[in-house]
Amino acid sequence: MTKTMTGADMVVQALKDQGVEVVFGYPGGAVLPIYDAIFQQNDIRHVLVRHEQGAVHMAEGYARSTGKVGVALVTSGPGATNAVTGLVDALMDSIPIVVISGQVPTFMIGTDGFQEADTVGITRPCTKMNWLVKDTANLAETIHQAFHVSRSGRPGPVLIDIPKDVQFATSTYVTKEKIKISHYQPKLKGDIDAITALVELMETAERPILYTGGGVINSGPGASQLLRELAAATDFPVTSTLMGLGAYPASGKNWLGMLGMHGLYEANLAMHGCDLMINIGARFDDRITGRVKDFSPRSKKAHIDIDASSINKVIRVDVPIIGDVGHVLEDLLRVWKSRGRKTNKDGLAKWWKQIDEWRAVKCLSYKNSTTTIKPQYALQRLEALTKGMNRYITTEVGQHQMWAAQFLGFEDPNRWMTSGGLGTMGYGLPASIGVQIAHPDALVINVAGEASWLMNMQEMGTAMQFRAPVKQFILNNERLGMVRQWQELLHGERYSHSWSDALPDFVKLAEAFGCKGIKCSDPKDLDDAIMDMLKYPGPVIFDCLVEKHENCFPMIPSGKPHNEMLLGDADTQGVIGAKGAVLV
Amino acid sequence: MSPLNIKKGSSSHSAYDLRDSNAQAEESHTLAVIVENEPGVLARVIGLFSGRGYNIDSLTVAEVDHTGHLSRITIVTRGTPAVIDQIEAQLSRMVPVHAVHDLTADGPSVQRELALFKVAGKGEARIEALRLAEIFRANVVDSTLESFVFEMTGTPEKIDAFAELMRPLGLREIARTGVAALARGA
Questions:
Q1: pLDDT for B148-181, tens place per residue?
Q2: Is the pLDDT at A248 greater than 80, yes or no?
Q3: Which residues pair with A73 in a beta bridge?
Q4: CB–CB contacts below 8 A, A to B
Q5: What ipTM was predicted for this assembly?
Q6: Most A CBs within 10 Å, among B10, B95, B98, B100, to test the A interface
Q7: Which chain A residue has the Cα nearest residue B46?
Q8: Closest by CA position to A233, among listed A275, A199, A257, A262
């Protein structure tokens, strides 16, 4: 059955057909027809944000916590340019979102019209794909294609720019079943010869390690299950990037903790000393590798990735396997089992003994205080008091983010939302709202630093309006903590503009928004204060005043390999040379 | 390390192409990129090169399949083998890209470029220019009493050589199309 409708109605109909339940957006002149169509229906919920960047991060939080595609709707010009940071964030972290932007009418494009911007031009390098739809007849098909592209292969953000006259004009709606099959069909199955080559290496490896990343989570819950099965069956140790936390449970026997610049000692030394590295859905990011020349020098490396361009981009690998993590792990387990489930048991026993020695270093230990709240202590208490709850964590970017990754345990995928690749301060608050909208009954906590949090604090208005009881757990050191740490280590303790004078009173700020504010500065009061936050049914801004000069360890200084980690302040004297200082 | 037991060409992607990964010398490669002919597709491809710091020595583009709306972009680029592999992988993953062929790596290919040369002069120089044009099988497509426009098709090297010879004879302007290339054989 064919139906004729306006472009604006097509947008709403296509979103419904794609299973969209909620759209995060902000109206404006060039999207008014779509807002009119949204007004006249009840199937799709619209969440009004306070700034378009917030809309995109909410869509990201929604997508990461559900595995579905997140949707944001913005107007032309400034609406679209405000969305750019979120688009790049989603591109770097492979998050499937669809952003729909309004545009000036087709006959005005190129005339520098009011609120006109070359949105597809600006967002071309910020998206996996984008489209300017100039004819209503192509609109429905383009939207269906956009969802297909966003979620297929390596997921990512896409943008559809729709001029206002295209929204008003009428044409025939095309259902998603009727569109022509896209040529874009990334390969899911890995090459079986390459998988067999990896199994051969697994059978003899003395010091293997599974290095997992966000690709495991993007592949779906089945991939996480297969990873757990693989680790249990082979007894190989598991480490993960920031993006992959939760794919393997933090309570699991084989878990080494996160690796990388602020990763755990045992994880990084195992990466450095292994003889077989199996990269599953990670991308050898510079936060992970440190100095590339000295990265895991004695290992054979296998790399499973759905994006062929990730392979051999930074680190040359011996066994490249292009495919979806879930599909490849399934084949890998099947081949390994059919060849007799062999591992090098003697080698593994020695390897675990070595790992246990590294674990005994207790690299996360810190000097606690009875008078000041240490940020690590705050997170340990948060972990203890929320363990076992139906909990989702988002973060901002900086020291608190690394401490959260170190001290909070994730048992399942899709429970941890953080800006990894782009490192977007201001991500966490809107992301937490997106997560809460998707999971209304869950406990959603944004672990934040006060500086990051202020970047998008206007979204507390969104949290209030849409009754999203998000908990903003702010580790307030009145500093840009990570910047301050680098200035201490790299720039002769010249703390150039890394402190925030004139911070707001967060409790009064909470009252101004109409939510609950809690302030805590004494370690003795911390548990009660956290419990107050957890018991309160609405949004909470928790101002946790912590030690101002705490540094985040362990740390691999820039330009250093994994085996030259700093474990504490005593190790830091003159460690970063001029060559390391130019790196970020 | 010894090459693994993976057949070359077992996948369309060059990650399986086990060339010497440590070679640091830059190579010139001609890539044929088959893309959907849609607005912005050329900007997308060029943006990849500028955004990631790759070289473009020559670029040509035109629709080659009017019913399928497919264009062929021929790019001559330079880089170490690792960089060339990256360029191919980055191009291949773009949504509107249907196929990427490395004509340099895949075997022998035919490469041709068309160029127009405006040469102005009188007397002996003018006669010499015409004589050389005959040797190079260039056609005269415009003539005045004081100038010629020569048209020539050939490899970029041949066009370079002809341009060098014309320079002292009054070369005023050159227009080149960039390289079009096809693999030899069926």
A1: 999 999 999 999 999 999 999 999 999 999 999 9
A2: yes
A3: A25, A100
A4: 69
A5: 0.91
A6: B95
A7: A125
A8: A199
A437-456 pLDDT per residue, tens: 999 999 999 999 999 999 99
- Please say if A164 is a catalytic residue: yes
Burial A47-79 (b: 16+ CB within 10 A, else e): bebbbbbbbbbbbbbbbbbbbbbbbbbbbbbeb
Is A13 annotated as catalytic? no
CA angle B131, B133, B138 (to 5 degrees): 150
Whether residue B95 and residue A149 make contact (CB cut-off 8 A), yes or no, is: yes
DSSP-assigned states of every residue in A253-286: TTEEEE-STT--HHHHHHHHH-SEEEEES----H
CA B26/CA B45 separation, integer angstroms: 21
Helix (H) or strand (E) holding A5: strand A3-6
Residue A293, number of CB atoms within 10 A of its CB? 8
Q: Are strands B109-120 and B180-183 parallel, antiparallel or unpaired?
A: antiparallel
Q: How far apart are CA A133 and CA B61, in angstroms?
A: 23
- Distances from the Cα of A48 to the Cαs of A19, A45, A53, A169, A177, in angstroms? 20, 10, 12, 26, 31
Cα–Cα distance, A47 to A323 (Å, whole number): 36
DSSP strand E in A22-141: where? 22-25, 45-48, 70-74, 97-103, 129-132
Is residue A251 within 8 A of residue A280, CB to CB? The reply is no
For residue A46, the cross-strand partners are A23
pLDDT tens digits for range B82-94? 999 999 999 999 9
Sheet holding B27-36, edge to edge: B58-65, B70-79, B27-36, B97-102
Nearest to A70 by CA among A84, A86, A92: A86
